[in-house]
Amino acid sequence: MIKIIDIDNASESDILTRDIKLESGVENTVAEIIENVKTNGDSALLDYSEKFDGARPDSLVVSEDEIAEAIRNVNPALLEVISSAKLNIENYHKKQVREGYRTREGVGMILGQKITPLKRVGVYVPGGTASYPSTVLMDVVPAKIAGVEEIVMTTPCGKDGKIAPAILAAAKIAGVDKVIKSGGAQAVAALCFGTESVPKVDKIVGPGNVFVATAKRMLFGLVDIDMIAGPSEILVVADENSNPKFVAADMLSQAEHDKLASAVLVTNSRDIAEKVALEIENQLSVLPREEIARASIEANGKIIIVKDLYEAVDIANRIAPEHLELCVDDPFGMLDRVENAGSVFLGRSCPEALGDYLAGPNHTLPTSGTARFSSALSVDDFIKKVQYIYYDEKALEYVKDSIEIFAEAEGLHGHAKSVTIRFEEDGNE
Question: pTM above 0.70?
Answer without folding.
Answer: yes
